[in-house]
């Protein structure tokens, strides 16, 4: 009887978590897709097309739209029995993770680009338009490559009382490898690059960089900080899962309870990452006039460069 009651409580907790995450995803879809479409239209109509920062913002808006377009399917997955098949499950997961990683890599590239523009402008100018196009393409190729580990462990699985498109939970080895890879690829490496970039930017700006560099750096900084805030809960869950799996042999009871408790929080933490895709258009809107003036100024300053 106690075991049955415990199962009912766990099932109820998961159902509530599914409902909360579904509501969050629905709001993100309703707000984020129109917002990012507006961003693309405004940038295409009003901004200089030869500025790499503008290209990165277009890239981010496109990846955000692609990611948000998958949300109705994940809402369906949370609230209903998965009936779309194994292949579609893996394809949609690949699409979602590819767009998410592309967005992350775009934010990372924004930081690195600002660092190069502020600290080593002549070096960046030598890259040329062809080099910038290669970087934009590389972002999507790396995004697709980074999505592979998650796709490998994504299956149609039995969770609580229904079938879902979810991760294989029976193998601790799979869970550990995916959690470690996600932590490294989606947190440690990109945020190390971001922190290093801003360290050099700060040194340069405090030595008297131009005001236009400060303005654009502040805009990119807001995008990076916002990204960090909404992704932190997801990475905390990942770190807890890693420690729980590693401690499972030494402390099986405590580790088992820990891993079970984070299951209900994992979907909610994952939903917060989608909020980031809705906030970006607001950041662009508040900074649109300053951003347009700054990118136009940078464009005029780079016209005489032979590589452009």
Keywords:
308 residues, mainly alpha, Rhopdopsin 7-helix transmembrane proteins, disordered N terminus
Could you characterize the architecture of this molecule?
The longest helix is centred in the N-terminal third of the chain and has 45 residues, at about 1-45. The chain has helices at about 1-45, 50-70, 70-80, 85-120, 120-125, 130-145, 150, 170-205, 210-245, 250-285, 290-300; strands spanning about 155-160, 160-165. With about 300 residues, it is mainly alpha-helical. The protein has one domain (about 1-300): Up-down Bundle (Rhopdopsin 7-helix transmembrane proteins), CATH 1.20.1070.10. The chain has eleven helices and two strands; from the N terminus they run αααααααββαααα. The relative contact order is 0.14. Helix content is about 85%, strand content about 5%. A two-stranded antiparallel sheet has the order 1-2.
């Amino acid at each position: 009887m106690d075991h049955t009651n415990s199962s009912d409580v766990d099932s109820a907790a998961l159902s509530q978590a599914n409902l909360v995450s579904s509501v969050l995803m629905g709001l993100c879809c309703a707000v984020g897709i129109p917002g990012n479409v507006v961003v693309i239209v405004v940038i295409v109509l009003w901004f200089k097309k030869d500025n790499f920062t503008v290209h990165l913002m277009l890239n981010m808006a496109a990846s955000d739209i692609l990611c948000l377009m998958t949300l109705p399917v994940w809402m369906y997955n949370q609230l209903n029995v998965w009936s779309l098949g194994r292949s579609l499950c893996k394809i949609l997961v690949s699409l979602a993770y590819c767009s998410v990683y592309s967005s992350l890599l775009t934010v990372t590239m924004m930081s690195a680009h600002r660092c190069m523009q502020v600290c080593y402008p002549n070096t960046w100018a030598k890259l040329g338009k062809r080099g910038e196009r290669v970087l934009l393409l590389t972002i999507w190729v790396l995004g697709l490559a980074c999505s592979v580990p998650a796709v490998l462990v994504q299956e149609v699985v039995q969770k609580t009382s229904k079938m879902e498109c979810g991760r294989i939970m029976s193998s601790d080895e799979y869970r550990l490898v995916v959690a470690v890879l996600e932590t490294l690829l989606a947190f440690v490496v990109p945020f190390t690059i971001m922190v290093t970039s801003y360290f050099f930017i700060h040194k340069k700006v405090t030595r008297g960089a131009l005001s236009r560099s400060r303005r654009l750096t502040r805009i990119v900084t807001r995008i990076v900080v916002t990204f960090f805030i909404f992704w932190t809960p997801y990475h905390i869950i990942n770190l807890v899962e890693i420690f729980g799996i590693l401690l499972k042999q030494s402390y099986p009871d405590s580790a088992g309870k820990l891993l079970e408790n984070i299951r209900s929080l994992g979907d909610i933490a994952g939903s917060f990452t989608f909020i980031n895709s809705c906030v970006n258009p607001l950041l662009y809107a508040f900074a649109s006039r300053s951003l347009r003036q700054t990118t136009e100024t940078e464009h005029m300053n780079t016209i005489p460069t032979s590589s452009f």
